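Chapter review: from sequence to fold.
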Amino acid sequence: MAENQEGQEKSEQPTEKRLREAREKGQIPRSKELATVLMMLAAGVYFLVLGPGVMTRFDALMREGLLLDRQTAFDMHKAFDHIIALFVEAWHIAWPFLLIMTVIAIVSPIVVGGWNFAPKALAPNFSKLNPITGFGKLFSLRNLLELVKALLKVLLIGTVSVLVILQLESQIFQLTKLSLLNALANAGELIVWAFIIISLSLIVIALIDVPYQLWEHTRQLMMTRQEVKEEFKQREGDPQVKGRIRQLQREMAQRRMLQKVPEADVVITNPTHFAVALKYDPDTMREPVVLAMGADLIALQMRTLARKHGVPVVEAPALARALYYNAREDAPIPWQLFRAVAVVLAYIYQLREGRAVTPPRFDQLPVPPEMTQPTGQAR
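The token string follows.
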């Protein structure tokens, strides 16, 4: 496994962020061998199909360029116009081939690494001019592999060339029996076929080089576990900081909730574990609403605030649990608890009016048993 400058092992695959930053810097996998093979094959096919016509047009162009009359040869303006016309005609002959080569040179790299435009890669990097760094790269593993690849290419091309020449030996000797023009035409065809066969042999190198370039690109971008953790912190935030933020948010929510307790009509308790503050205004509300709820320490604070501000505190364990597990703050109570809450509110209203009433049995309120468990859900 590769290691970074601190000696940590790069055992983790590059993240999406690492890959994206590499593309922005122009670091993408590229296979020069694939581009070379495609361009050579395209050139060979082009000359095989259109070569005779192209050579005929260039032959006529050469004849026209060398056959000058006396008047044109000794007239500077006419000679210049004649040369320009020859260049224009040569361009008309050559531009399809040049266009094909240009398109392949642009498209072939996209096959491996995809399209990428990286302005950062155009910025000058003076560290690359450091002779010490450059000298060190001469003996790098990458350059060693490139040397091995170059030797394999020479060996492959040499072997295939010898085999092609041996295969075409009889046809080559037959050229001596033909006229000059026929011999040149046949020789051109043999050269093109030999060129295509040699180009096809380089596909072997390309098939090896493409996976290697992809592997090498991934290897260079490999990350240590610490780098992955640091990136996660940058993306998601430091867990300790996020935990502190969530704690502060909970504290703020609790303070806002406790501020509503003095506005409640009643606080129903467990009596110690849970507390739920309810409010009901027949003129503005269709059903009672939960202003605040809490457990343990929050429940104690709610009971203290309620007694401090004269809000009645009612001990109804089953109802308190049912409200805590099924209701939500600033929302109406579940409809299944309407009857039980109505009994409590009726008792509170009678106390406000100064009536002498007997407290109901709050431990026998009509509360569905399944709603007093933590798995109960509001309906």
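Two observations follow directly from the output. Strands lie at 266-269, 274-279, 289-295, 313-315. The first strand starts at residue 266 and ends at 269.
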